[in-house]
What does this fold into?
Amino acid sequence: MQQYLVTASHITGLIGRAALWLAGICLVLMTGFIAAQVFWRYVLNDSIIWTEPGSVMLMGWFIFLGAAVGIREGYHLSFDVLLHVLPEWLKKTFHTISDVAVTTFGCGMIWYGYQLAEKTAGNTLPSLHISGAFSFVPLIFGGVLVVIFSIERVLRRAAGLPTARFGDDSGES
It folds into this structure.
């Protein structure tokens, strides 16, 4: 089972790396859109109508993709004071409970994101000329990654493989 999880982790690592790259590209594009809007408005005394909704849409992508990768890599904030005094088996139990809760949250992101996308599919964003459903695609996609990465953490822990900050020997095992 460990060999299968190592192979699966390699694949999810590639997915995570691609998601992080996409999040970075979206952040740079959003910054460029906002800079262009400022230049157009204050220097050229005009306005670009699509920069604000485009920037908000890009922000959704980099927030949800970045959050999912943060879950996979174990970089999210947590309250671990109690964990420092507990035995190792109980620490792993609490970490697993936390990962299951995060998985449930990811399922909620998928479910409610889909419902929102479905309800807004008939609307058109006037400045972008695309369906309103596109605003919720990052929520759904991020939720899918959250579920995959959280399940991966639970399975790795069950197999005795490290889960926190992959490659960092000081993390939880």
Notes: The longest helix spans residues 2-42. The first strand starts at residue 124 and ends at 125. The radius of gyration is 20 Å. The CA atoms of residues 98 and 150 lie 9 Å apart.
